[in-house]
Amino acid sequence: MIRVCAISLLLSLCALPALAQTVLVRSGEHAGFTRLVLDFPERIDWQDHARENGITITFPGQRPAFDLSQAFDRLTSGRLAGIDAPKGSGELNLTFDCACTARTFWHARSMLVVDILASLPAETPPAPLTQTPATEADSLAMAKPTSAAARWMTSRIGPPPVMTERDASPVTPQPDDRLLAVRRTLLEQIAQSSNQGLVEPAPPRHPVGNPSLSPSPLAVTANPVSTEETATAQEAPLGLGGNLRVLGAIDPAPMSVLSSTLSGMTPTACLPEAMLDVATWGAQAPLADQIGALYPRLSGEFDIVNPEIARQLARLYIYFGFGLEAQQVLSLVPSDDQEILILRELAAVVDDPDAESMAPRLRRDLGCQGRGALWAALAHAAIPENQLLDHPAILRAFAELPEHLRKHTGPALARKLLAAKHRETSDMILRGLGTESPFDTAAETIARAELAIADGDLDQANQSLQESLSRNEVDTAEALATMITSRIAQDQRLDYDTAQLAGAHYQENRGTPLGQEIGRSYLLALAASGSYPEAFSEFDRVAPDLPPETAMETRHDMLRLLLEQAEDTAFLRQVLNEPAAQFGTMSSDLAQRLAQRVLTLGFADQAAEILSAAPLAEADPVHRLLMGEIALARGRPQLAEAEVIGLVSPEADALRARARTMLGDHAGAMRYLDGLEDEGAMQRAAWLAQDWPKLLASDDPTTQNLAQALTQTAPEKSAGLLSYNSALIDQSVETRAALSALLARTEISTLP
């Protein structure tokens, strides 16, 4: 029978995704009540409505489907006459065959429990101190436990009962003493704390494969408890455990205030080292052999799961890197114990080391000195750059992991450390995986390539990635995305075939996080290959699959590649048709560079539209200079001068000089050009201003000779007419020679 149950349980684990859609209804008989258990994937809102001879349970906003095939398998009392779940209604109708009442509550995080009972258990009033002295068992009854948690707690403190709580016979009274009164008072306070959810059992910490060890002595620790944990403790019985953990003696209302106050504070306590000793949770033996020794003991009669065996099985799965399987096993143990929570978080980390795992408790230990530092780093999607890390602790914890876990988690850990600027530790992690070889996984190749890129060895990174692509491994898509990013960072053009390969991988992984990454790389590869029309056309198809921020960033990167690599016609064709809203979301630097090139190509109005749409500060000097250039291109020199009022820079003075020249104020242009290192502009302004003495100081002999010729005074007539005419002819020859030399070195376009 046990073997059949174990096989059924194994098959149910394989069909776990189906359980997420259909809620299984299980049943069981207990002393005095009938229990139904509804296995939901997670807690949802519910309401129960009393009706004649039964109740109806509804789930606002939800329409779950129910599997009623096992509802009557273990019922014998006849309290439940019928159960019905109309298809598509999401309701559960229970019909009673007795004058019964129902009690509904959540147990753990996903089990909705419905108890059908003839009457609620009566509370046993405490006996006055003046009565006959009672035994320790009687003193437990005086504690007045008012919840299942309190009743279980008192039963665990006292001696083990021979029979059930309802069938227990009175115990022979014993002589009273002062210690009994103290014990009773303590038990009353513990029971009250249990009702408030402030006391919970701490399960024993057994080494893997050694469940026979006795529990350690009573341990008491203090910790705040969340509202959800308080509700769980009040609603449902606690699982069997060992020691007692007192979390506080504060009433629920002040406790909730304290919890909200402490919610923003970062805890400083680190997890115990033994709780994260993954290296001891398995052996260097086939997984099937180790699982085979545990699965037959996982559940016993009535399919009751052994919590300790479930823990051992989950640890074994984590040891071998099977995170999803570990989570499935842990779902069979409805407990909020810290060890179970940590095991669930470890399972999430090993299931996908590259992603940010649902491991809030592990992430807190990033600054710890021990194994917690390693698992906290793996649990982060991005390690904060300003976080101080215990690098030796991370390296020690990583080195003690079994080889297969190092190969599985090492590349992701190295990449996360490198992204947080911990280059040396990242290099040490990769060295722990062994030297680079053709047998490296794609994840290792990518991590080594990113380290090479960080070191500036782009050629080595490209070579490693290209070799990984040629092997067509499982993670080829991620390697391809990294290679595309590396090539673009080097301002290298990509061939069209590489872009098409990225497009094929995108189509294969569409709808996944990897699909989003390779989709972005596909668009950038098209742009870097010069296929601009196809790149921007494909953007409209791929963008809906990307997060909005990623899509916007990708569009801007495509425009940057267009700006830097495209020839003028392709550039203008795309930019002039770009929606104005795009310019309002890009960086000021990119918008200014686009506007500058558009203006250089002669489209002043379109350049002004780009700048007006971009979110640029009016006080930005680059923005104001560009607006001044646009005003000059539009033939509005006064507006150009107004745009640069108050700017003190050589560029602003050069623009003012050009504006003065357009206004015919060549002397004013010379004043702005004075002191600038633009000799050509100064000479042009002096020519236009007919400032020949200024041209005499020119370094150009031709200009100097012409200026000298133009500044000569007319010869004196007193020497005679013949002498006067001869001097005029000499001056004319010098002037003509200077003009001829100037014309000879000046390019003059010849009209057709």
Q: What is the fold named in CATH at topology level of the domain at 2-117?
A: Immunoglobulin-like
Q: Which sequence of strands runs across the widest sheet?
A: 5-1-2-9-8
Low-confidence stretches: 1-20, 120-176, 203-268
Q: Please report which band the strand proportion falls in: under 5%, 5-15%, 15-25%, 25-35%, 35-45% or over 45%.
A: 5-15%
Quote the distance from N terminus to C terminus: 106 Å
By DSSP (H or I, 4+ residues per run), the number of helices equals: 35
Oligomer: single chain
Assign the structural class, choosing from mainly alpha, mainly beta, alpha/beta, alpha+beta, or little secondary structure. alpha+beta
The global form is: elongated
Structure, explained:
Strand 8 (101-107) and strand 9 (111-117) form a beta hairpin. The radius of gyration is 41 Å and the shape is elongated. Helix content is 51%, strand content 8%. Helix 26 (588-600) packs parallel to helix 28 (621-633). The chain contains 35 helices and eleven strands. Among the domains are: 2-117, Immunoglobulin-like, CATH 2.60.40.3500; 136-166 and 180-211 and 219-258, no CATH class; 617-690; 706-752. The chain has a five-stranded mixed sheet with strand order 5-1-2-9-8, with no helix packed on it. The protein has a four-stranded antiparallel sheet with strand order 3-4-7-6, with no helix packed on it. The chain has 752 residues and is an alpha+beta fold.
